[in-house]
Amino acid sequence: MKLKRRFWLFATIIFISLCGFLNSEQVNAKAYTSKQLRTYTKKTMRKYHLRGTIEIVQNGHRQQVSEGYGYYKRRIGNGSKKLVYPVGSLQKSITAAIITQLIYKNKFSQNTKISRWYPLLKHSSKITVGQLMTHTSGINVSGTESNHGITFSENGAIKWTIAKADFNASSHRNRFNYNNANYVLLAGIIRKVTGKSYAANVRSRIIKPLHLHQTYIYDEIPRSKTDAISYLYRHGKNYQSAVYANKHVVSQLPGAGDLFSTPADYEKIQQGLCNGKILTAKQFNYLSHLKSKVNTYSGGFYLKKGGTLKLAYGNFGDTHFVNWMQLTTDNQNGIVMFLNQPNGSKNHIKSIGYSILSKIKAGTFIKR
Prior knowledge:
Blueprint: H1 2-30, H2 34-47, E1 51-58, E2 61-67, E3 69-71, E4 76-77, E5 83-86, H3 92-104, H4 129-133, H5 154-168, H6 181-194, H7 198-210, E6 216-217, E7 226-227, E8 230-234, E9 237-243, H8 247-251, E10 259-261, H9 263-272, H10 281-288, E11 302-304, E12 309-315, E13 322-328, E14 334-341, H11 346-360
Parallel strand pairs: 5-7
Antiparallel strand pairs: 1-2, 1-14, 3-4, 5-10, 6-10, 8-9, 11-12, 12-13, 13-14
Helix pairs in contact: 2-11, 3-6, 3-10, 5-6
């Protein structure tokens, strides 16, 4: 009898100790301070040979962590105020936000057929604005991020996209098919409805109200700043295979890839999508729940985990740039990652980002 009591007493002590250990681990997972987060992020970037800048948001507190050079030859460090990075596909939520502003001004609706502006475009009488915003239009244009040796004007890029869409137009509407052409055509709608360039709309509707100082359409980057160069880690060395965002490619992507910014500015834009400076919370909900969506993508990002997270991943054709955003929809926690030297596959990069996210707030984020 005494042996049994001793056994259960011993077992109870072990159980309590184990629970205490697990609880301690859980507490530690949730309790990374800003300094600990910074240290962990730095070590993680160095370990995996990542170079770039990450904006970390934890319970509304924001800090920037940078590693390595954004322009190795000139020794300009990532995080420098001289540097801006191609936003790539993360620009699409900005274009969609401007479209949403126009919808709320009763200029048109998400159900308006795009034949109003593109009467000569094949199938345009059957395609809606909302379908462009959710990549369910059936339009597929190849080579949108390939170098065609032409520096396009905004209007020229839109006309090029229409011509290619005419040639490659598909009838597979209502199916998700991610393609830059959808957002170039949205940029064209913004031009036609407002009577101003897409670039002018970005300045007046995004940059000015948010007081952004490191966000520019590509051909408006001032001489005091420079765009970052992308690299690869190869043969045990950083900063190999240098490639910049080619102006020919950038110029053919108005609304879908011609914006340059920083993670800090981009995170401010995400705040602006629901704090009333760009959109209200109601308008953000409209943007993220368009009727034409067939998966979790709506208006430039994926809404995940019951609508509590917004995610977007982007790269830039023929370069090594990688951008990834995962934020809570209230913008209180998450990361905006702009890398000019990635290392590994898309899922590997996301896994590294997730390791940082898990230290921000345990149980909140997803791996991809």
